[in-house]
Design a protein that fits this description.
Blueprint: E1 2-3, H1 10-19, E2 25-26, E3 30-34, H2 38-48, E4 54-57, H3 60-72, E5 83-86, H4 89-96, H5 111-117, E6 124-130, H6 136-143, E7 147-158, H7 164-171, E8 177-180, H8 183-193, E9 200-203, H9 206-214, E10 219-222, H10 228-240
Parallel strand pairs: 1-2, 1-8, 4-5, 4-6, 6-7, 8-9, 9-10
Antiparallel strand pairs: 3-7
Helix pairs in contact: 1-10, 3-4, 5-6, 8-9
């Protein structure tokens, strides 16, 4: 199984796959770096001072970048004076590990569902996101009356190439499935490796699946729920439908 998450995030999915008897091959298709920009630091200070009504996190990477930057500023991010939203259980867990319980987690773990789950309001919502994240969430929140401030919390860049062992395994036809956990992992993988037809393509959610199809990949399964555990289960479903090798 090919795991295309960033090096910092690949381990969790690899561990889940390994526990099910799979052999994960980590092939990071993106690199993630926390933002050191002035606007990001200013947004964290303002939130600590009560300048936002909500802070909405759309990834665990955003949570990690937030707390890391707060530490460099000498701020205790646990004192966040705002309600907190999380896109899904992974993001909510990253917050919980740092002493913050999310006030809002949508039933479906997508940014669109998060926007629809938000109450109406006229205050300020801060969105610490990836620099390449789409703008649909801002539109949904704005339509509900919120004043939305988006700030780049981290940068996502496509990998220049896949690791040698991953390239070799793909070339030898040894990869049964490729897992994608974000649209950016799809884009990075296709840029580095093209669109192989042999492995089953498994995506964490509908946005990722749509991007995979747009890139020319044939999506075999989409996780439900949209979690890492869901990705593992979707991978098992996809492979169960395929004929055995040599059969």
């Amino acid at each position: 199984m090919l795991v295309t998450r960033s090096p910092e995030r690949a381990g969790a999915l690899s561990s889940l796959l390994r526990a099910r008897g799979a052999i994960p091959v980590e092939a990071p298709a993106i690199a993630v770096t926390p933002s050191r920009s002035g606007p990001f630091g200013a947004a964290i200070r303002e939130a600590a001072e009560g300048g936002s009504d909500w802070v909405a996190f759309t990834s665990a990477e955003g949570v990690e970048a937030w707390f890391a930057r707060a530490a460099t500023l000498g701020l205790d991010a646990r004192g966040l004076r705002a309600k907190v939203a999380a896109v899904g259980p992974g993001t909510a867990e990253a917050l919980r590990e740092r002493g913050i319980i999310a006030d809002l987690v949508p039933r479906t773990y997508t940014t669109e569902a998060l926007g629809r789950a938000f109450p109406g309001g006229s205050g300020r919502v801060l969105l610490p996101r990836a620099d390449i994240a789409p703008t649909e969430l801002e539109r949904l929140l704005g339509a509900k009356g919120w004043k939305v401030e988006r700030v780049d919390a981290y940068r996502s860049r496509p990998a220049r190439s896949l690791p040698a062992d991953a390239r070799a395994a793909l070339a030898r036809g040894e990869i049964d499935a490729i897992t994608f956990t974000s649209a950016s992992t799809v884009e990075g993988f296709v840029r580095a490796a093209g669109t192989p037809r042999g492995p089953a393509v498994v995506c964490i959610g509908p946005v990722t699946a749509r991007r995979a199809r747009e890139a020319g990949l044939r999506v075999a399964a989409v996780a439900r729920p949209h979690t890492l555990e869901g990705v593992v289960e979707a991978t098992e479903r996809a492979l169960a439908r395929r004929p055995a090798r040599g059969g």
